[in-house]
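User: Please run a holo structure prediction.
Assistant: Happy to. Please share the sequence and the ligand.
User: Here you go; the ligand is adenosine-5'-triphosphate.
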Amino acid sequence: MKLSKLYMPTLREVPADAEIASHQLLLRGAFIRKSASGIYTYLPLGYKVIKKVEKIVREEMDRAGSQEILMSAIQPKEIWEASDRWDRFGPEMFKLRDRNDREFCLGPTAEEYFTTLIKDEVKSYKQLPLNLYQIQTKYRDEKRPRFGINRAREFSMKDAYSFDTTPETMQVSYMEMYRAYEKIFDRLGLDYKIVEGDNGAMGGKKSHEFIALSETGEGVIAYSPTGKYAATQEKAKVVYELPERCERLELEEVYTPDSTTIEAVASFLGLKSQNCIKAIDLMVSGNPVIVFIPGDRELNMAKLEGYLMTPEHEIEMMNDEQILSINSAPRYTGPIGLSEDVRLIFDKSITQMDNLVVGANKVGYHIKNANYDRDFKGEICEDLLEVREGDIIEGTNEKFKFARGIEVGNIFQLGTKYSEALNATYLDENGKEQLIWMGSYGVGVTRTVTAIVEQNYDENGIIWPMSVAPYHVIVTVVNPKDEIQLELGEKIYNSLVELGHEVLLDDRNERAGVKFKDRDLIGIPIRITVGKRAAEEIVEYSLRRETEKTEIFAKEAIEKVSGEIFNSSVKDNLSKALLDLFEN
Ligand code: ATP
Ligand code: MG
């Protein structure tokens, strides 16, 4: 492709609302354009990168025995009602009506849709296992779309669904996808961690997230230094270090003026914040729920959502009026003396500590020496706490370390949640009707592109790995008005194209500085510069990733390009082959 023809409106300025490097560089390098909040257009360079990521995803999915189909982005309401997710998905789901008032959604994912597709045609154990996938646009009306195509409202996802006869074979299918994902993210050149995830709204028991390491990532990984354990912060279990047990003392109401925070109460009473219970006043699906945790910790919302089996959008903080209506006072809520209809939920640690300080449900007062069972009671939840760096990892002497990253893939063992809801069954060897066991597997195709950029850039722009670079080589003609330069540039360009490489020729009548800036910005891996020594057939050869530049004959440069591209594809194949070897 000649740059004089390519639609590549690069930007000099950093766009005002782009906070992270990938967002800035993808806009500046003319890969994407915003059309509305969280909704983007892929320009020629950007769309090429997306197609390369898709190609790698397709190859590995096909190799793993999954078959590609394409379902509509529009899904009927009824199937979502059957699984009880039409309302549960909440405001994130884009909903629409046709002219006959029939309701649909723009698919945010497709467990129901795929299950519906196969359920009437898969009838016998002989037709299983089955694994189907699609690469299809997904829609989620995210609360906070941000970072460009990293958290968008319209994005491309590869989603796959496995269908099996037993929990054991479901696990086999799951592990096949796990390995396919390793290959995909290896080939994309990402530095990533595989961590245990929280199943959240998807249901089922076990899941893993593939997280590309990046300081700008929204995900926090809690992992053990020896690498034996890694989970998302939502999932990682807290082993709370309990204080020593002691004799239970008499209840005592104390005046605690202006002490509206845990720290203030603790310091006023000369106690540790651990001994002062933190109350979180919530309305859950319209009903009052108070959650109690030790004063030195934070509530983990994902764990609470899991315990309550309630989606996030149905949980909100109480307002002052609501707090007053349950017989309490804002910032002084405690478990003693609240109205009967309030649901009280305690982190288990509360039940294992003595003489705690709790809010007295009236302004300016707390109660000392409150003890679970003797003075208050409620539901006990095993673990509602947010894990911290330095916390002990269950069953080990190791302590959690944290890293940040971008979730690029997520795989789930779903069990029979969707087959039960949609009545997807098969007949086993004995002619008995059984539920199908399912898994679901997602790769964020467009988000992955942002993760690749976050891991591959410098102050001048993007540095694409060869496997996803929009073009392999850029040939820059320093002064296209000089016929000798232009002629040599075109000759090199034509030979490289002939050899099957993907090449850009910068033949624009622009200043050399502009061209060099653009080629750094768009991150093409191999560069050939045709300048003053064109008459001698000498060009400059360099790699985007390295600073070294060499002057060589044009012929040699063409050979080097081929070698470089060949090597990187060998490396790519080698990593696939090695993975296979280790598996078998
Ligand atoms: P997140 O926790 O980041 O909101 P999720 O867990 O809801 O993501 P999944 O339902 O697991 O997402 O979707 C599968 C994959 O799709 C994710 O791993 C991610 O790579 C991608 N993805 C999800 N939401 C978005 C989004 N809003 N924009 C771009 N990609 C997304
Ligand atoms: Mg996920």
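The chain has 14 helices and 31 strands.
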